[in-house]
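Exercise: predict the structure of this protein bound to zinc ion.
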Amino acid sequence: MDKRSPSQTKSSRVYGELRRDITAGAFRPGEHLVRRDLVKRYGVSISIVNEALGRLSGDGLVETTEMIGTRVVSLSEEGLRDEFALREAVERHVARVLTERATDKQLATLLEDARMLDRWMNELGHDDGQGSLLHLEFHLKLARTTGFASLEENLKRMSMRALLTTRWLKNLRLPHPEDFHQQLVQAFMRRDVVAADETMRAHLHYADEYQAKHAAGAVAASTS
Ligand SMILES: [Zn+2]
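Solution:
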């Protein structure tokens, strides 16, 4: 049974829908969110809209200033690079903690999740909106499995911000290994912290390293 009051339930629904619409690109980074338009769009009162925007602000997805009002956050490339450094630190720490402390049973569950995610991503492509959310959910589950709520919370905040910004920057369709995430969990299962850390590092840098290699190959080919 849901013990929350109807207004709490409504507020959670609007928060969820607005978050999905923002990350799906219905509102662009930097776009103004006009409260009276949101009231119409979601068919709720202004106080419910205010509550949802307050929660989204806590997630780092919108920002409100007195002069300008509420907007979808828009990170510069430098800002994104900067946040990525912290995101990488969190994810590599997650890899180390799981390698050292996760039970065999936890890792077996994660491997099963990874198998499903990889199958899904091979079908949908890695930049599909729905696929991006499933992908994010898997990385958050890794963080959650460490037992440290702060790792999950911070990763979620940073990943959502990156997701909504990068959606507009590039639309990549890189070929990924078919067992991209299974490789990660299998690295944790070998209980070698250094190797697990490197596997996560390579995972996070897959796209830029692939492109760098590709660009280098293209240059070599054109000069030969
Ligand atoms: Zn991944």
